Amino acid sequence: MMNSILVALDETPSSRTAEAFAIALAARTQSALTGVAVLDRPAIESGEAVPPGGMAYKLERDARRLADAKARGHALCEQFTSHCAARKVRSAILSIEGEPLPLLITAAATRDLVILGHDCAFHGRAEPGVADVAEELLRLGPRPIILTPDTMAGGSGTVIAYDASLPAMRALQMFVLLGLGTEGPVHVVSVDQDKTAAEDRGAQALAYLAAHDIKATPVAVASSASPSEIVLSEIAGLKPGLLMMGAFGHRGLKERLFGSTTSKLIAQAPVPLFVFH
């Protein structure tokens, strides 16, 4: 079962959603919640060409940017602590300086789950699509991740996008072992051009869930359309509170890590997305 969660604190809309989602999940699971604020000093102080005599100006400007970033980070931490206290969630703050990715990987190693907004980059501004920090953490991080959208569509339960690949099997196991999937209905969506093949893939997930006393409804779709479009359509109809998947692509849901299906679902899914590989 889950007992510790790490949530990234940033100023983007999806990061605000991540904080709210993490606090609600921590309250429900009685998990300890750590908010991590990263001051990306290397990005702020990055080298650049300056005209003769301009170094003093650059150093002064960098100092102002650092002071501003520290002040904004401090405000985020104070708000997070206040929000946790209001929900009676055990919380802690991890305020660190340096390049975000290695710091997040180290912090994640001692927690069960990481939650962050899809455009979280610790620069205080929204990133188009999926921020590099989020994508690299998905690739290299030691723990499962939940990525949140800019706004929550509402809903309850879980849609599991399952293709019987190794990433999907691992993701499903981790999902169950963390105690997720116990709130609201669970639907297993499987896709293939052949209906029987889609049903067979979904049956594997249904059997594993049943062994852990989780009842699920199969949704086997026979189609050659993009799996991402099918999954998004099912989300629109079923209105879950969470989407769970392994990292997959578009060819029968079995392609290289972070293929078109994964990227599109991360960017467009209107619900938090649980990913493991």
3D structure, described in words:
- The structure is a single chain.
- By secondary structure, the protein is an alpha/beta fold.
- The chain has two domains: 4-148, HUPs (Rossmann fold); 158-276, Rossmann fold.
- Helix content is 44%, strand content 20%.
- The protein is built from nine helices and ten strands.
- It has helices at residues 13-29, 41-44, 55-86, 100-108, 132-140, 166-177, 195-211, 227-238, 260-268, and strands spanning 4-8, 32-39, 91-97, 113-117, 145-148, 158-161, 186-192, 217-222, 242-246, 273-276.
- It has a ten-stranded mixed beta sheet, sandwiched between helices.
- Helix 9 (260-268) links the parallel strand 9 (242-246) and strand 10 (273-276).
- The protein is globular, with a radius of gyration of 20 Å.
- The model is unreliable at 249-258 (pLDDT under 50).
Which spans have pLDDT < 50 for at least 5 consecutive residues?
Answer: 249-258
Provide the helix percentage: 40-55%
Tell me the number of structural domains: 2
Query: Spatial order of the strands in the main sheet?
Result: 3-2-1-4-5-10-9-6-7-8
Q: Give the SSE string.
A: EHEHHEHEHEEHEHEHEHE
CATH class of the largest domain: Alpha Beta
Q: How many DSSP H or I helices?
A: 9
Beta-strand residue fraction: 15-25%
Give the CATH superfamily of the largest domain. Answer: HUPs
Give the end-to-end Cα distance, rounded to a whole number of Å. Answer: 19 Å
Query: Major beta sheet, specifics?
Result: 10 strands, mixed
